[in-house]
């Protein structure tokens, strides 16, 4: 069986979103897919420094032009820009029937990621979300986004950090520090502070709040500045006093911290951040994703937040010590330099191939075309919403064993049915006969539970001339192979009425084993109906052989 995998267009415009695209193109390529990364804003430089191929996208027209190139799925990274043209891209893709997905790098500000300038937190939400941790999924579910359409895939930015750590260790911390921080004595303790922006989607929440438990020196209201002042003052009480260097955010400048020049030993910006992290004895930040990367690199890491509520903004809080009081900060710095080998929680390890999981999730949504000897299975195209298709559903002979027999079907009801698959892991393919100029002969659908690694298949052969030809079995086993091989499912299930001998034969010939029987929801021909359920485990599946 041949597969024509979908083409995925990705747009990101800030470093957080860009982190979710790291390794994605190569991971999709390993599955036979194609991806192009469009990068706007600061994302282009960020990806370039990470060695990630991307196409600079300076304006909306460039992005809209790219969308005309026949992509099957648009994935958009969220941004702190409420007027981003990413929202226009999503709306345009939706109007054209292109599946959409969002790449969200963390739980912070979930209610503002897709709000734009509206009051609706999901005003511009795509059909599906790809998130790194369960906390992010839960935050969007609380806003009303269907959790069944959210995939938790881990942090692509952490993929490969074990190898990166080995490279840095081979180069040596002393040599890296001498290169990046030449004015700091090699034997002097070094704290690297990770600067963040003190504005964003809602600037007020990045300014001093009534519930702050850290107050800084009293003159600054910015969240980052307050924490920096606390860190500088706490470091001054450590003996020997550590040097504090600042790793600037891509959108900040050293001049923004001119008032602290007497306290800051050095600034670092640009290049690959991993070397700067590795050069430090302790990495301190608020909730930036770089904290988790530092932890995976084996560097002692500390999150300092000005209020307890911001623990929810931190990815990887289970692996990073967190403090929010002046006393807690002083104690943490003392521990970090008195007993550095015992500072971090046990069990810090690399998350694994999140880029592969992200690619698999996108591929599950942007379904491939499946080719068999006689058939072409296409993600259902709008052109097939015809009176002929509706006629199948209203034909008592075609839907005799289906609960669809109790409904009256129209073009509009079928259109709503097809739209329900947009952005879902569930699949809908049109079955087309290659010997008859791709004549539409039926549909096949899947209901997929990626968490349970299980998928259920249903089929409708509406063209009665195709009955008894084996085309139903051919389509069925092609989709089984896709679920097992491409989506990595562990089992495939199905069910039908006991009287539906044709469907029973398909399940048997496909290698499915009956698991149980149950009473049907409605009678068949005036008699109680029995349902037969079956399944096939991946280990027992024999891929179809081409004739």
In short:
The protein has 547 residues and is an alpha/beta fold. It contains 17 helices and 22 strands.
Describe this structure in words.
By secondary structure, this protein is α/β, with parallel strands linked by helices. It has 17 helices and 22 strands. The longest helix has 16 residues, at 471-486. The model has no long low-confidence stretch (mean pLDDT 90). The protein starts with a strand and ends in a 10-residue tail after the last strand. Strand 15 and strand 16 form a beta hairpin. A 9-stranded mixed β-sheet has the order 1-15-16-17-18-19-20-22-21, covered by helices on one side. It is elongated, with a radius of gyration of 28 Å.
How is the secondary structure organized here?
Layout: E1 2-4, E2 7-12, H1 15-19, H2 24-30, E3 34-39, H3 43-49, E4 55-56, H4 60-67, E5 73-77, H5 86-95, E6 99-103, E7 128-131, H6 134-142, E8 150-152, H7 161-171, H8 173-180, E9 190-194, H9 223-236, E10 243-247, E11 266-268, H10 273-279, E12 282-285, H11 290-296, E13 301-304, E14 322-323, H12 326-338, H13 354-365, E15 369-371, E16 375-379, H14 387-393, H15 411-419, E17 427-433, E18 439-449, E19 454-461, H16 471-486, E20 491-497, H17 501-509, E21 513-519, E22 530-537
Parallel strand pairs: 2-3, 2-5, 3-4, 5-6, 6-7, 7-8, 9-10, 9-12, 10-11, 12-13, 13-14, 19-20
Antiparallel strand pairs: 1-15, 15-16, 16-17, 17-18, 18-19, 20-22, 21-22
